[in-house]
User: What shape does this take?
Amino acid sequence: MIFFTYKQKKVSLVAAFSLVELLTVITIISLLATFVLSALSTARVKARDARRKADLREMRVALESYFDKWGHYPTTGASCGTTAVKNSADANPDPWIRCDTCDAGEDTAMTELFAVMPRDPVNAGGDAWDTDGYYYSYRGLADAYDLAAHSEVVGDRQRAEYACWREHTDCADDFWASACGGTGADTPWLFSDH
Assistant: This one.
């Protein structure tokens, strides 16, 4: 007589994810990462604009202090038909706002008011008053000035086309943005003018 012995093998089932489940999870994580990075980018843009506004307020206070001491604002030689703008992207040493028609004592007054003249967080750009330049711009007459920065936030209600800022030159005191009836183009500039 022949006997057969049967030994039962234990089969263990290992819990695992299928390929479809793994791809679904990776897709969801990718989408969440995209949303987080997008929100972070928006927060950075808003933070740069908040700094620009704070810098413009700080420079405005310094310019008013300069006016109180000297009886005029730093002049840049602006005349009818010329812009004569100083901007923070220039290679000028601090202070980048300088008085072109003043004596040495008046010109160094800006150094007294600012240990380091504020510069735009990006501080790069093309020509003065460009729509793609990220820097601070200053144009000064004896009794008025334009101080501007480029806003990155599209819906900012302080932009020239919404707030109807006026541009100061010695031949006109006109609205900057055409949306307000001015001769200039609608721009993304924030103004802190006097």
DSSP finds four helices and six strands in the chain. The chain has a mean pLDDT of 75.
